[in-house]
């Protein structure tokens, strides 16, 4: 086959905006043309401490002069420390470090299957998942995601996932069979449109898991690391899983994922049963420890909660005033969804015109994911930009009608 004459050699799997950034400072991104944008994407819930946080910069610079990569053939004192800190803050006894959310989820799926195999029930490998979920793009996590638009063309989806409607407890009960190993859910669906069932649903899932000997798996890749106003979203729900996947904000922008599990859940995992070349790389671990240094300071999450309440109130008032553009504010903490009346892609584009960066999601929702360090003044600034975008979008159809006369 001949070589393509395409102007970009990046595999064209992303619909990229015609905009590039040269650097970032806190909540701000500076484009290659020198324009300042307010970043309410945080690299999709990754840059939780904003861009170039001085403590993270110092930690990575220091680590870069010491050791970049060390294989898991040897001990990792700093990895031990990050794992111990994550366990101390959670239900977990063990942590496996990976490089991404999908890999953390792969490990969660493998731990769940192996748990039952180790108990003498290898036939119990099926995991119940929920409509609207997003668990990643590898073949197993895509099968767990279960969305036709992502699975199309990749052959038969991997076996072992039974998807039911979100919040439908009867459907969950009906799906539990002799082959069921666990139940996998996001405490708050991010990609799916900032949707979550009531807390009672999570409590009911916990009870079902206990009754049937199933593992409860939380995908906190997006909700974890402070996004919803607690280190982990399930802490605000008051329901504890057996296995949990983390990634996105864990390294504050450095790629790292983690799968956390109780000793009981991870009983099947022994030397050789899982692995990763880069997982727990010293640079990633340094970033992870530096993120925790900041997040575990007293008052960090209280401040996130306060700023989130403020943002929520101001956004609710914008929704009231522009019902022709916005229908609803939803979400938890600083994982905020604006359900749009106009196409959500139009809203994201109109906000970008106002130099406010946001992310689309399912269910015609636009996600606002500011860095957790966002100030009150920056929230006010963003709300003004959202208002201006609403004005522009309200005027647009009228203008079009006039032009069409
Ligand atoms: C982003 C995301 C993933 C996948 O993470 P990657 O790092 O892109 O592989 C998995 N689950 C949830 C809930 C996510 O938001």
Structure description:
The protein has 405 residues and is α/β, with parallel strands linked by helices. It has 2 domains: 130 residues, Aspartate Aminotransferase, domain 1, CATH 3.90.1150.10; 242 residues, Type I PLP-dependent aspartate aminotransferase-like (Major domain) (Aspartate Aminotransferase, domain 2), CATH 3.40.640.10. Helices cover 39% and strands 17% of the residues. It has 13 helices and 15 strands. The strands form 3 sheets. A 7-stranded mixed sheet has the order 4-10-9-8-7-5-6, sandwiched between helices. Strands 1-2-3-13 form a 4-stranded mixed sheet. The protein has a 4-stranded antiparallel sheet with strand order 11-12-15-14, covered by helices on one side. A hairpin with a 3-residue loop joins β14 and β15. α12 crosses α13. The longest helix has 29 residues. The protein is globular. The relative contact order is 0.16. The C terminus is likely disordered. The site of pyridoxal-5'-phosphate (PLP) has 15 residues, from α4.
Per DSSP, the total helix count is 13
Number of domain units:
2
**Which second-level CATH architecture of the largest domain applies?**
3-Layer(aba) Sandwich
Mean pLDDT over all positions: 96
Determine the structural class based on helices, strands and strand pairing. alpha/beta
Query: What percent of the residues sit in helical stretches (DSSP H or I)?
Result: 25-40%
Described by strand count, sense and barrel closure, the largest sheet is: 7 strands, mixed
Helices and strands, in order, run as EEEHHHEHEHHEHEHEHEEHHEEHEEEH
CA-CA gap between termini: 50 Å
What is the CATH homologous superfamily assignment of the largest domain? Type I PLP-dependent aspartate aminotransferase-like (Major domain)
Bound molecules: pyridoxal-5'-phosphate
Protein name: Acetylornithine aminotransferase
Pathway: Amino-acid biosynthesis; L-arginine biosynthesis; N(2)-acetyl-L-ornithine from L-glutamate: step 4/4
Keywords: Amino-acid biosynthesis, Aminotransferase, Arginine biosynthesis, Cytoplasm, Pyridoxal phosphate, Transferase
EC number: 2.6.1.11
């Amino acid at each position: 086959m001949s070589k393509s004459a395409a102007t970009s050699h990046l595999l064209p799997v992303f619909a990229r905006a015609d905009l590039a950034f040269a650097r970032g400072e806190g909540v701000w991104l500076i484009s290659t043309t020198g324009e300042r944008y307010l970043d309410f994407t945080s690299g999709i819930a990754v840059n939780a401490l904003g861009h170039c946080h001085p403590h993270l910069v110092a930690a990575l610079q220091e680590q870069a002069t010491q050791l970049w990569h060390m294989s898991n053939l040897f001990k990792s004192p700093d990895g031990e420390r990050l794992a111990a800190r994550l366990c101390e803050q959670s239900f977990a006894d063990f942590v496996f470090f990976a490089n991404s959310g999908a890999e953390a989820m792969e490990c969660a799926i493998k731990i769940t299957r192996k748990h039952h195999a180790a108990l003498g029930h290898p036939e119990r490998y099926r995991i119940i998942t929920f409509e609207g979920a997003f668990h990643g793009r590898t073949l197993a996590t895509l099968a767990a995601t279960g969305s036709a638009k992502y699975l199309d063309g990749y052959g038969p989806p991997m076996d072992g996932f039974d998807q039911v409607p979100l919040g439908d407890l009867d459907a969950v009960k009906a799906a539990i069979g002799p082959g069921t190993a666990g139940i996998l859910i996001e405490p708050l669906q991010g990609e799916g449109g900032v949707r979550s069932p009531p807390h009672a649903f999570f409590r009911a899932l916990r009870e079902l898991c206990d009754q049937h000997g199933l593992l409860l798996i939380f995908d906190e890749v997006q909700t974890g690391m402070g996004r919803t106003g607690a280190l982990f979203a399930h802490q605000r729900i008051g329901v504890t899983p057996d296995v949990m996947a983390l990634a996105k904000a864990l390294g504050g922008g450095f790629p790292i994922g983690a799968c956390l599990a109780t000793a009981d859940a991870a009983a099947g995992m022994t030397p050789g049963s899982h692995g990763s070349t880069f997982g727990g790389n010293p640079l990633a671990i340094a970033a992870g420890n530096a993120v925790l240094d900041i997040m575990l300071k007293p008052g960090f999450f209280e401040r996130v909660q306060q700023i989130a309440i403020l943002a929520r109130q101001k956004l609710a008032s914008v929704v009231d005033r522009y019902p022709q553009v916005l229908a609803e504010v939803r979400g938890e903490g600083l994982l905020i969804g604006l359900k749009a009346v106009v196409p959500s892609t139009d809203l994201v584009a109109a906000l970008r015109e106002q130099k406010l960066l946001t992310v689309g999601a399912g269910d015609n929702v636009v996600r606002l994911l500011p860095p957790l360090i966002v100030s009150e003044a920056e929230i006010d600034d963003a709300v003004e930009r959202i208002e201006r975008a609403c004005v522009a979008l309200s005027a647009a159809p009228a203008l079009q009608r006039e032009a069409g006369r």
